[in-house]
Structure formats: structure tokens, C-alpha cells
């Protein structure tokens, strides 16, 4: 007759529960999967399926009583680790959002706001368009599959029970600065072109005060901005591909991997 102790039962349950907590933490915020358009039940089932598939491949999990405070702390710790891994990719896609915001402000389309019912915020239409463009590039590069692979490898590189505060948390904070620098890098050509246009109309307003520069400059600035957007489409994919590689590498190195 098979008899199991409470510790053995907790270990068996933990081999599925702890991986589920980390994976679900990543799926809460990871692009595409963490979007509000994806039902929570689908995310839970997807996380359970992945946890069940990798349960037998994981290193031994710590024997912790499932009803103890240590089990609660371990569950929260795995949720935070998964959340931080998913947040790195969240910053990657929002590079395109900030890029669209910068270009909208330069070309005078910042007032063209569209509400996003999924995320509950309001962004310029150009930001929404660039976000969709960046998402399609990320999918074309199979970035979602690589991200799930890194998430699975995290159990080998950073086993369950490892100290959360031993992770390079300051490097994680620096990724926020990387978000703004990457957005500005993509937006610099358009910003410089729009700056030249504004300087030109400034010179015209000083040399010919009788001209209605505001009536002439606004449509011309918008047309020049749309032209810059059109010209940027040929160069953004290659640059954004490098940013995707950089974000995935940072995600892998965050949990102790070497590239």
C-alpha cells in the first residue's frame, strides 16, 4: 500500500506549483500573452501546460510544507522573478510607443489621441501604430518562442529556492534608462529633420513677417513628419531587431546565463 508523508506530498505538488508561479508571473506582463485581450483563464491554462511539461526536467525543488509561511514566501518570490523577466520584454515593446510619442510631438499630431481599452491608457495614434509594427517584428523573429525558452531555462540557471536578492536588480533598474535611450536612438533622424523644418519656418517668419507662418507651417510640418515616418519604415526593422536581441540577451543574463 502506497503511503506518503506530508513532506513528500508537498514536494510532489511543489514540483508543479513553484514553476507555475514563476511562469504565471511572466505571463502577467509579457507582451502578447499578458495583454488584456487574452483571457486570464487562457493564461492560467497555458502556464499549467508548460509547468506540467517541464516538471520532470527541473532540478529538485526544496521540501517546504505547503501550508507554511515559507511556502507563501517562495510562491511570491517565484512570481516576482517571473514578473521581472516579463517586464524586460514589456520595456522592449514600449520602445515603439515612446518612439511614436516623440514623433507625434515633433510633427504636431500629439493631440490625435486614441484610447486603448486593453491597457486603459491613451496614446497618440502614431504610438499605437508603431506598437503594432514592433509587435509584428517581434513575432516575425520568433521572439515569443525564445522568451518562453529562456523562461524554461531559468529553472536551471536560477533554481527554485535561490535568493531573489542575489539577482542583478540594479541592472534591471538600468533597463528603464535603456528604454528611453533606445527610443531616442530610433527617433533621432525624424527629430533632426523636423528641427530643420522648424528652423526654416522660424527664419521665414523673421524675414517675411507679413506671411501667416502658423497657417502655412502647421500643415507643412505634418506633411514632413509623415514623410519622415515613411522613410523611417525602411530602417526601423533592422534597428529594432538589434534591440530585440539585446532585450532577450538581457533577459537571459538576468538569471545568470552567459551569451
From TrEMBL:
Keywords on record: Bacterial flagellum, Cell membrane, Cell projection, Cilium, Flagellum, Membrane, Transmembrane, Transmembrane helix
Main location: membrane
Chain segments annotated as transmembrane: 12-33, 40-59, 79-102, 129-152, 172-199, 211-233
Keyword set includes Ligase: no
GO biological process terms, semicolon-separated: bacterial-type flagellum assembly; protein targeting
UniProt xrefs under PANTHER family: FLAGELLAR BIOSYNTHETIC PROTEIN FLIR
Name of the protein in its database record: Flagellar biosynthetic protein FliR
Originating organism: Shewanella polaris
Amino acid at each position: 500500500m502506497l503511503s506518503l508523508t506530508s513532506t513528500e506530498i508537498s514536494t510532489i505538488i511543489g514540483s508543479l506549483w513553484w514553476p507555475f508561479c514563476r511562469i504565471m508571473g511572466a505571463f502577467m506582463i509579457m507582451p502578447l500573452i499578458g495583454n488584456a485581450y487574452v483571457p486570464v483563464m487562457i493564461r492560467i491554462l497555458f502556464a499549467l501546460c508548460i509547468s506540467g511539461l517541464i516538471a520532470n526536467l527541473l532540478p529538485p525543488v526544496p521540501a517546504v510544507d505547503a501550508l507554511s509561511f515559507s511556502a507563501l514566501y517562495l510562491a511570491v518570490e517565484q512570481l516576482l522573478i517571473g514578473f521581472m523577466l516579463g517586464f524586460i520584454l514589456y520595456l522592449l515593446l514600449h520602445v515603439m510607443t515612446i518612439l511614436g510619442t516623440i514623433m507625434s510631438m515633433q510633427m504636431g499630431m500629439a493631440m490625435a489621441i486614441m484610447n486603448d481599452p486593453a491597457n486603459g491608457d491613451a496614446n497618440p495614434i502614431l504610438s499605437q501604430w508603431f506598437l503594432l509594427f514592433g509587435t509584428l517584428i517581434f513575432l516575425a523573429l520568433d521572439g515569443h518562442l525564445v522568451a518562453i525558452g529562456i523562461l524554461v531555462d531559468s529553472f536551471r540557471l536560477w533554481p527554485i529556492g535561490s535568493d531573489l536578492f542575489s539577482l542583478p536588480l540594479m541592472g534591471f533598474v538600468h533597463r528603464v534608462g535603456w528604454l528611453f535611450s533606445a527610443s531616442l536612438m530610433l527617433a533621432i533622424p525624424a527629430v533632426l529633420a523636423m528641427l530643420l523644418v522648424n528652423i526654416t519656418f522660424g527664419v521665414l517668419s523673421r524675414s517675411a513677417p507679413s506671411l501667416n507662418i502658423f497657417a502655412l507651417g502647421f500643415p507643412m510640418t505634418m506633411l514632413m513628419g509623415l514623410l519622415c515616418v515613411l522613410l523611417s519604415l525602411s530602417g526601423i526593422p533592422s534597428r529594432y531587431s538589434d534591440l530585440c536581441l539585446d532585450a532577450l540577451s538581457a533577459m537571459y543574463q538576468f538569471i545568470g546565463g552567459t551569451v
